[in-house]
From TrEMBL:
Top-rank lineage group of the source organism: Eukaryota
Keyword Chaperone: no
InterPro entries: Crypto/Photolyase_N_sf (IPR036155), Cryptochrome/DNA_photolyase_1 (IPR002081), DNA_photolyase_N (IPR006050), Rossmann-like_a/b/a_fold (IPR014729)
Keywords noted in UniProt: Chromophore
GO molecular function: damaged DNA binding; deoxyribodipyrimidine photo-lyase activity; FAD binding
Protein's UniProt name: CRYD protein
GO biological process, one term: photoreactive repair
Keyword S-adenosyl-L-methionine tagged: no
Stretches assigned to the Photolyase/cryptochrome alpha/beta domain: 1-77
Amino acid sequence: FDPRHYLRTHCHGFPKTGPHRLRFLLESVKDLRETLKKKGSTLVVRKGKPEDVVRDLITQLGSVSTVVFHEEVREIL
């Protein structure tokens, strides 16, 4: 979870992620973790800037051959 997604927008001062969306995200992540656990896998969840969290996770895991990500759509001002 990137803390920057929970700040207010620059243009109108509304939260980027409101309480209902946050609840939906948390419930979705919990459901995904439970589904993966039933299949013998797991889900790693971290809070922080992705550029820091991913680097630290790669260092922690030691042997990583591939990293896949997507880029968020930015606001057009």
